[in-house]
Amino acid sequence: MPQLDRIIVFSQIFWLVLIFSVFYAVLTHYFLPKFLKSLKIRKQVIDLNTKEILEKTEGTLNKQNLLIKILVKNLEIASNLLVSYFGQLVKNKREVDTLMIDQKIGFVILNTVKFCDLKLLDSIFVYPKSLKYKD
Question: What span, in angstroms and rounded, lies between the C-alpha atoms of 38 and 31?
Fold first, then answer.
């Protein structure tokens, strides 16, 4: 069989080794540094983007925490004002039409449910009408 002839096989092996050696040398000398450089630049871009995202996320969380603190403080002030106002009404023993007050409180609670967090809602104490205020 001519394809297994020793004279042909050695020359084919020689050219195969020579061509692949040259091809390997060209790839590792010229193209591999360019590929590695582009991979390194991509990694740096990804790291910078991740760092910026973390900084912006941290800033946003700080602003949200500050806003929540301000809202809770203002809700406590409003709650204290309402409690003192109703306390004065009960002490004066005047009859008060609470329908308008209930409608306003319901409107505030509806807007709070739509636009606020449940933690804020938990900080508001709502008493049922059946609960009678005592001195």
Answer: 11
